[in-house]
């Protein structure tokens, strides 16, 4: 027993428990047994006197109305429990049917005649405590559906026409389900175009040639008869036709604009719209007096049905379907009236009373229309005669001063025109001592703000039960019910505590404890708007009592559970339009649950407009109308109208162009078009998310011709030769020709005004040529559009010229003004240009080098960037589009002497740690006579204010200088400046320092290979090069010290080769008689061949393969005969000489290149494994020719690096100016061998 059952403790289910307590006084001498009844945390142990437990008939199985096709189908269930065991009897059509039975009342049609079983049945179950009865049920008897012999029906239609294939199955009261299949029992593919209607017929909105089949078979499934019959077979032939190529406005197969639908609450209802037309119409549903989404209806069957699985009273109303295609739309409306068979609003309970009490049985039912209610006692109808103790008022039966004789089963039945319902209620009158039935010490858990009921169910002779509280409760949140229940509303933590309930005038009482917990949603999910395809997040901020540690958050989409988790955030990824609905967050604890509501509104691009139509066509104007598509929760803000002109454009060049925009609340627009054109239109809808797909194109629309409305632009002369006038213009697009026989009328006359008459001519395209016009003569020209209906407006004239010729005379009066490296040239304006002057060219010549400067149409120019201390020769020409004039006489001028440029180079040598030799080369541009050089150098110090040393070299032939007493620990900045009598030029600047003596390396890294050892070190940045030797001694096996060749400190590494694998060596770095470093190294042990199992297996396989090939060759040779090698080779040559396809050649090349890549990789690894120290050194850095004294010290000067012959392992020193970074450590031989190929 659970907490929710406590208010019903006085029902028949508690009768046994009550009688158990009574049995202690009724039969104390009988053996007793213990019965435990679980009341959550309370267990009550009582003794049972079995012989005293009585129970009236309680129906457990009841019959249902049905249709029978055979005796096996007849089954009317009637089962009941009770003590004493009930007996059963049946009434058929109001008369006794069969004999009374005991134990089971179920009827079966075992030995009956099928025809005699049809009728109305009611079952009665009785014992000494009363009689229970069932509702009346009907049994219909029908023959088994039988397939009648039918011939194949033949139907014929044209492509694009609609078609209906009928299905005529045998009739049955439960109608059959219809399935259309072919001979292979494969279902006919359904779509928007091909649909099965509610009447079982197969509807084609338009026929296609693929619909041609000989085996359309209609199968009828009779579920209650467990039978499937192939009812109708149809052969459909489809013929091609051009009469319906463009289709038409949709129509409905059922020619009714309005339908009245009556439905019963809870039943299944389907509204049907089956359109026909080409293209296949789209169907949309809406509720005219409400919102379709708020109903229980679902759009199914390719939008052809609006289906209510279990219709409700709220679904009552007006509905409309709309079918549309590119040619228009049509609507159909439905009025749905929902009524209801009787259903219970309040049911009477099985209760137990003591003698003298007043009993009230409430039986309230509702329905449409409202049902009537009747009462029975033990199956006998109560008459309208009033009795002093019994009153019947509607659905209420009141009995006063009840006694034991009133114990019975009472029936309440509600009826209206749609059916009836019946309830059996047991009333037991018994005399018992007072008891409190609710458990003692029960703990009630409730959350803050909820209502709670503390139960104190009792059984007493009179209403002596009362709730005695530890503190007086005098405020309206608390009420005490007549059954002793204490009800608290909107509880708070102050309501926690212990409550006492007692029976008045007795010492019987119980206690109850109330614990109030905190459980609330601080912030529930919000109303979220999200774009289709993105993610939506709903948050649920929960605050629970610390005592309620374990809680779960259940998210629901509508009424469907999504997930049960402890996560307070719901993430919906890739949201789609069907995700738009209400969402709830439910927090569940062991005490209670709280719910908060939110929503997700998915916004998406609108659906494309549909149903484009053209109307009100007058001249070049037409009205375009359309039906907007679904906006998907975001209002349409704008429509874009696009047009495509098809008459004047090749089909492959058709393009859609934006014609107009209108606001989103428009569904039509008036368009002004070009004459003599053919258009199609389409519409695009726009909302905040983006653009819809474009609509289907409209029908073609053609406009009538008219005279041209515009003239060509860009009228100009494009004359190329003297004596001719070539007039050209920008052609007009064909869309603006406005009619047939379009041409251009060209008019011209000389611009001097001597001739007022216009010359004219017509052409279909530019250019237009006029001869004998002179050289560069000005003309007035204009071009007008004309067609078969007239000409365009009179154009304004333009000025054009006949062809040009070269200028005849050179410019005169050339003069110059020199300013350092700039010369200003001036001349007089050219005469006899014979065309449009484009400008002048100034040509300068210096030592056979030309310098050309082009000017605009002006008589002076400045030429900059001239070489100083030089002589120039200058000529000027005029030019037009035909060429240049003759050159002006040569004009000579000199540029003055200037300061020289920087020296071309600056190099260093460091003979000692304190001296440097600076060497430089003369400037590339002396700009005069060199007077000498100035040498400056400055020591770099942190204060940056060291003195600048200045040395003058007065002999320009001297190009080096020695600087002594330099600080070897510092860097210097050196500058060399050249000078002429004009002044000093810019310096060349270098940074540098002297070289240090240095010493052989002392920090060496050793890397071992199989037969070699790599030694690497980091050379000093400014150290002078030193030569040293590496000595090595094998530590085992005897032998003496061995010495390497001379090694330079600047090398950075060296490789000892020819060592024994797996041996330990002692190493030394020796310079003269001094040892600068000592260390040890051990070479790597080689892998033994015998341990390479995979290699042995590979070799064995190759040997075996070679043996097999040899055996095959011997067998072939043993067959005798000669092999025509020459013939075979000639055949191979012929086959190879055939041209190969590009694809085959590409494949051959790719395979070859792959092989080359693999071969080169393997060869590289093998070659690298053979290299000694010389090859390893050659991989790193360049070599330099260095000379040494006998002790290995450096001699010579700094020089650039150059290649050296193979075998010279030394490298050059680091530069004192730009230090070279140390070379990388040479790789070991083992790393080279292990390099991946």
TrEMBL record:
Biased composition (Basic and acidic residues): 798-809, 1125-1161
Compartments it resides in: Cell membrane; Cell projection, Growth cone
Disordered: region residues: 692-719, 790-814, 983-1003, 1125-1175, 1197-1237
Entry protein name: Neural cell adhesion molecule L1
Job of this protein: Neural cell adhesion molecule involved in the dynamics of cell adhesion and in the generation of transmembrane signals at tyrosine kinase receptors. During brain development, critical in multiple processes, including neuronal migration, axonal growth and fasciculation, and synaptogenesis. In the mature brain, plays a role in the dynamics of neuronal structure and function, including synaptic plasticity.
Residue ranges of every copy of the Fibronectin type-III domain listed in the record: 608-706, 708-805, 807-898, 902-998, 1000-1093
Gene behind the chain: LOC100712012
SUPFAM superfamilies referenced in this protein's UniProt entry, alphabetically: Fibronectin type III, Immunoglobulin
Keywords, ordered alphabetically: Cell adhesion, Cell membrane, Cell projection, Disulfide bond, Glycoprotein, Immunoglobulin domain, Membrane, Repeat, Signal, Transmembrane, Transmembrane helix
Membrane-protein topology: Single-pass type I membrane protein
UniProt similarity note: Belongs to the immunoglobulin superfamily. L1/neurofascin/NgCAM family.
